[in-house]
Amino acid sequence: MLVKKEKQVFYDTRGVKSINDKAAKAKQAHKRVVPGFSTQSRQTNVQVAKPRITGIFKPRPIGLTLFRKFYERGDFPIALEHCAKGSRILWKIPLDKIDYHHYLPLFFEGLRETTHPYEFFARQGTHDLLEHGGPLILPVVPQLIMPLKRALNTHNPQVMCTTLKVIQHLILCCDLCGEAINETLELMERHGGEDAFINIKYMIPTYESCLLN
Description:
One of its GO terms (molecular function) is Hsp70 protein binding. By secondary structure, the chain is mostly helical. It has helices spanning 21-29, 66-73, 100-109, 118-133, 141-152, 157-173, 175-191, 196-203, and strands at 10-11, 17-18, 32-34, 46-48, 78-83, 86-91. Among the domains are: 66-173, no CATH class; 176-212, no CATH class. It has 8 helices and 6 strands; from the N terminus they run ββαββαββαααααα.
């Protein structure tokens, strides 16, 4: 007795019914690849190309930092000290007598470091300076913007986490730091022209106008 074999039905990417699986795959392999969101993508016997990978979340090369250069030259008044709780920085100069305008931006530059001992000295040294800086920190804040931006632009998870913790410490260590940021934005809105508020709001959605309210 002859048994009638059922035909398997397949559908291609355009929803067209295909009886022969092998023929459909062969036809799929010979399709012309065209860019997406174009008039060519509406043609027959074409295959839309996959979107390119932008790599926006891919870590970027860090390169040589000023912190490493100064550290290797021995320009920092620091040394590594081992204690019962682990390692810490031994400062050769009292922290209240250190030139914050010179040293604090350099330590912020070192936040991009990921190798020992540069990473440890930069991270721990930054927290030590913020802990004991007090009123000496506020005048240096404008010099810290670019190092922080470069650290966040590395897209390196380790560097970004370290930098965010430093930003939190910076805001809490000096009561006037947060007020200085808000005061700067208000000055920009008052004297930046009629489109100043729109541009500030675009970059900082949580900002509220000091003129409209």
